[in-house]
Amino acid sequence: MQLIDDPEVMANWAKKRRRGGETVALVPTMGALHAGHLTLIKLARMHADEVVVSLFVNPIQFGEAKDFTHYPRKLEQDLMQCEALGVDVLFAPSADRVYMKDTSVWVDEELLSRGLCGESRPGHFRGVCTIVLKLLNLVQPDLAVFGEKDLQQLRIIERMVRDLNIPVEILRGKTVRESDGLAMSSRNQRLSEGARLDAVVIYESIQGAKKQVEQGERSVEVLIQAVRDRLVCLPRIVIDYVVVVDDVTLKPIERIHSTALLAIAVKLESIRLIDNDVLRRS
Ligand code: PAF
């Protein structure tokens, strides 16, 4: 496996592979890899000759400086995991190689990023779209893989690819969960023992809502209230949002007609955790 930190070297490497007729897959990450990332890498491996994993803690997608500073960084461990999975290149550039000091062009999505995380983290998706487009431009992969845990991000990237005619196929990786159901996230590593135990309530409340829908509940207001009631039982949890939205447009809905998306964001000891799942009428 090659470790590349220079964007130009990365672009040349990818150009050579494309010229040689090989297919290239990109898995963009911010590192501190966990089983969720590994699933995305395995998916990429199944669909392309060459797999590039990018590892870049993107400063412009973090609102609070503290969140950026405390984001876990585990390069050595990430290197070993990528090597073990047969990754061809780990692309880990430094911020000054990615962003010019006088950068003045950014990518904004204006519809799907209005609600959910876009509302509580202004500028977050501009940061995500800008870095993802830069990575796609550098690597020019045949396909790129993103996880369903960040479903709003996934939908926004799919929309960016559609609207900007980017010649790449986006593959979706299923959310991977801990044995108690907590969605895997690099941020989980920062939770104290007590907070980690509390965190399972996010999954439990989603399961509760799914069951209610299976049993015939159609009112979004009732479903949201039940999730909130469950979450607030734990004093360490601060709710950011609990929403039920159309799973394509991400717009709020009032009743469950066929399928809908339940999405939750909370802070636990000021660590932001998100999760989502589809609510489906049986
Ligand atoms: O999901 C992530 O880890 C990041 O948002 C991404 C897509 C790598 C962009 O920085």
Brief descriptors of the model:
single chain; Rossmann fold; binds pantoate; alpha/beta; 9 strands; 3-stranded antiparallel beta sheet; globular; Pantoate--beta-alanine Ligase, Chain: A,domain 2; 6-stranded parallel beta sheet; 41% helix
Characterize the structure shown:
This protein is α/β, with parallel strands linked by helices and 282 residues long. It folds into 2 domains: 2-173, 3-Layer(aba) Sandwich (Rossmann fold), CATH 3.40.50.620; 186-280, Pantoate--beta-alanine Ligase, Chain: A,domain 2 (2-Layer Sandwich). Helix content is 41%, strand content 20%. It has 10 helices and 9 strands. The strands form 2 sheets. Strands 1-4-3-2-5-6 form a 6-stranded parallel beta sheet, sandwiched between helices. β8 (259-268) and β9 (271-280) form a beta hairpin. α7 packs across α8 (151-163) and α9 packs antiparallel against α10 (220-232). 36% of the residues are buried. Bound molecules: pantoate. Pantoate (PAF) binds at residues 28-30, 58, 61, 128, 131-132, 150, 153.
